[in-house]
Design a protein that fits this description.
single chain, 183 residues, alpha+beta, 53% helix, elongated
């Protein structure tokens, strides 16, 4: 019996290449799953490319195509009635002021994120495409973004803060040089 116990202890303590490889692969798979499904990029603001799928969606979407194809840059934001709306009052006020500014109006189109209805799933393939497009848009745009369709680039805010409200109009004017200047 002692011989069997000693033999069991020797087998239990051996940790070979197969076991180490399995653990390494398991860790890589877990990290990949985390970044694919659970990770949310919380970078406060910055530039990003507009993916080709999103560009195609925005060009053909009934909700966005007029603004996106207008030749101007596009500001996309949440409407107050949307459950994702989390702008503070000062930022929303600054957005309303910027939207009414004549100089800003020459450079930008303003459009809210599309509010999806529960029955969109009954639209079949068309509804599925809208859901995928909106998901990609919100992932790329975060909570508020300024898009330049000609350069296929955007400037995003993860979550606009009070400090962003006082500089919104001047930031939009500065982004004119990132975008294009209209005569």
């Amino acid at each position: 019996m002692v011989r069997y116990i000693d033999q069991y202890d020797k087998q239990k303590l051996s940790f070979g290449v197969k076991e180490k490889s399995a653990i390494g692969i398991g860790i890589v798979v877990l990290i990949s799953i985390y970044f694919m499904f659970f990770h949310v990029d919380r970078t406060p603001y910055g530039y990003a490319e507009i993916p080709e799928k999103l560009d195609n969606y925005l060009k053909s979407s009934l909700h966005y195509k007029d603004e996106y194809n207008s030749g101007k840059m596009v500001v996309i934001y949440y409407d107050e009635r949307d459950k994702e709306y989390k702008y503070n009052g000062r930022f929303k006020d600054a957005l309303n002021i910027a939207e009414r500014s004549q100089k800003i109006d020459e450079l930008y189109e303003f459009v809210e994120f599309q509010q999806l209805k529960n029955n969109i799933l009954f639209d079949g393939k068309k509804g599925e495409e809208i859901l995928k497009g909106e998901k990609l848009l919100k992932k790329t745009c975060r909570k508020f973004c300024v898009m330049n369709p000609k350069k296929k680039a955007l400037y995003f805010y993860f979550e606009p803060q009070t400090r962003d409200a006082q500089y919104l109009e001047s930031n939009l004017e500065k982004l004119e040089f990132w975008g294009m200047k209209l005569d």
